[in-house]
Amino acid sequence: MLFLEKHLVTVGFRYFGLDARVMFGDKGPIIGGMLRWTGIGGGFYWNLAQRTPIPIGIAAMDKNLALHEVLTPSDGTASLKLEVMMSSTDGKVLNALGTITIVIDDGSLHSLSINVKGVMFATDPAALDEAPAKFEATIEYVFPDRTFSADATVSINFNEGLVTGQATMSILISPDAWHFKIGEFSKSTDPNLGTFLRLNATIATIDLSAYFYVGNDAGSIPERLQEVLAQISDGPPGEVSGVMMGAAFEAKSNLKFLVFYLNLEAHASFDLAFIDITKECADRDMGVNKFYALGAINVGGSASFGLELDLGFIEGRFEAGSISFDAGMKYGGPNPTFMEGVDKSKF
């Protein structure tokens, strides 16, 4: 397959792109007895830059997209791309696409990137987007900024949502900022962020999440630790430097037998951080060597039971009893040292 686009438009300069791909399919050579080379491709683009974000699905490896869907005019930018497509010999266990891209900006080497995306356990090689496991990883070096970055994502969706999950990893090394992180500690804007594993069975839903961060460019600290820091400070200024980690567990179950119901819920979480905070307390720096420790732990649960009726003239749930408890502890220190414990029960 060969694709060519050339335009003269109102942007004031000419641009063109040449994209080619050869698909071997199940006729491709077998490598090592386990992998099949299913295709090769590449392209050259003049005065065109890659759109961000790229409007291509993680599994869209066998689709022909027009160049204007993935590129946008950019004066002085040129790029060269090489693609290699591989799969398992059965075409189901693994399908992957590897891409090497070199970008030149105003005559100088701008960036070099390697991207690998793919799917696993596809039941139909012609419908890769429906595969239950998907992954993508990108390594890039930007020469003018002297910045190295690596990002990876793995997502799963088995048995039509019975088991779902997502794991992310990010590495950044630059002259001014750096970090290594796994997962995301913020779930305030997207409830799926940081959810490593979710079991959504008929009788119960279980969520597991975790995160780890070390670096100097975090935009904030975990929400549960913000409450601790607010007790003794107005918060860290600007970017946050330090180490942060945490995990959370939540389980819910709604059981019913005849006209009786039983609701159960349990949760547990912990957060721990050592952050660089340049502030003083009693004429001394907060923490040790300007690093301050923050911690929070919480466990709790609830249960309720009663009748659930639907008799036409009367319907709804009628609670007969309930019990709940919630216990937690927060810590900050040293200098100043703050500790608070909470224990709540309700019958």
With helices defined by DSSP (H or I, 4 residues minimum), what is the helix count? Answer: 2
Oligomeric organization of the protein chains: single chain
Number of strands: 20
From N to C, what is the helix and strand string?
A: EEEEHEEEEEEEEEHEEEEEEE
What helical percentage do the residues reach?
under 10%
pLDDT averaged residue by residue: 83
Instruction: Give me the Rg, rounded.
Output: 27 Å
Overview of this structure, please?
The protein is mainly beta and 347 residues long. The chain folds into two domains: 1-122, no CATH class; 203-347, no CATH class. The chain contains two helices and 20 strands. The protein has an 18-stranded antiparallel sheet that branches. A hairpin with a 5-residue loop joins strand 1 and strand 2 (14-23). The protein starts with a strand and ends with a strand. Residues 1-10 and 188-192 have low confidence and may be disordered.
